Amino acid sequence: VAHVGSGPSGLVSFPGVGLDERYRDALFLCDFLGDARASRVLAMKLERAGAGYTVSDVHPFVSEVLPTDVDFDYAGHMVISDWDEGWESNGKGQLYRVWDPRFVDTPAVREVTELMRQGFAQRPDAELGRLLANGDMRVRLRAQWELAKRFPASVTILAPIARGDLDA
Question: Residue 85: what pLDDT?
Fold first, then answer.
């Protein structure tokens, strides 16, 4: 797609809740350069360009870490694994949680946390169908998987959505 960082070591897409709208559909790339002063987690977006993509809005999201991987927890925090120092392992490391206090304790984040805690197996088909429109990609995916397990009974929920009738 494009040259973004010199030391890519971990990548995650923003699931949809816990950060500012600017990060909707953003990717986060760990740029490990062997020195915390130069390493960072970069944010970026992919934009369609014909049959391919271009990269846009590339900027440091977290600086002065030696990130080896990055993910998001269900409470709206980014979790970063940090190598600790240099290129050689010293047997140490740490995990950092990063969050935006404006978005971490919101109804949307609380809903995701509770849905993931409770699970999806006990939810009725109609509720799972509504969860396919949830703001968090992980919730949408779990609802989809649960409905797929219930096939063919779930076809009445899934067929209208597959046809593009999102009001079904």
Answer: 84
CA distances from 131 to 10, 109, 115 (A): 29, 14, 10
Q: For the residues 27-48, what does the mean pLDDT come to?
A: 95
Given a contact cutoff of 8 angstroms between Cβ atoms, the answer to whether 61 and 40 are in contact is: yes
Identify the helix (H) or strand (E) that includes residue 53. Answer: strand 52-63
10, 30 contact by CB (below 8 A):
yes
Element (H, E) at 113: helix 107-118
For residue 166, the model assigns a pLDDT of 62
Order of strands, edge to edge, in the sheet holding 67-72? 67-72, 78-82, 94-98
The per-residue pLDDT for 1 is 58
Local structure of residue 116 (DSSP, 8 states): H
Q: Model's pTM, two decimal places? A: 0.88
Cβ-Cβ contacts under 8 Å for 79 (sequence gap 6 or more): 70, 71, 72, 73, 95, 96, 97, 98
Contact of 98 with 62, CB cutoff 8 Å: yes
The mean pLDDT of 151-162, rounded to a whole number, is 89
CA distance 16 to 9: 22
Quick one: angle between helices 107-118 and 137-149, nearest 10? 30
Asked whether residue 95 carries a pLDDT value surpassing 70, the answer given is: yes
